[in-house]
Amino acid sequence: MLGEGDGEAEGVGGVGLMTDLAVFTAVMALSPQPLAVRLVSLAVATVVTWQLNRAVTFARTGRRPHAEAARYALVTLVA
Description:
By secondary structure, this protein is mostly helical. The chain has helices spanning 8-30, 34-56, 65-78.
């Protein structure tokens, strides 16, 4: 049986994936340079998932948002 809150991270991941695909598709129509477009779509999706995770799944840490965002971006780059 699933507990309360189960699936929230998956929902955030799904929104991130849809954001990535939508931005990639839209920007590809403007600039057919896949690597540059991929970097843009990944950056936008990272910001979206960080904001959603911050609101839905992450516990409050007391860290400043900029420090938290930098850590999140670093983990995203490594992953």
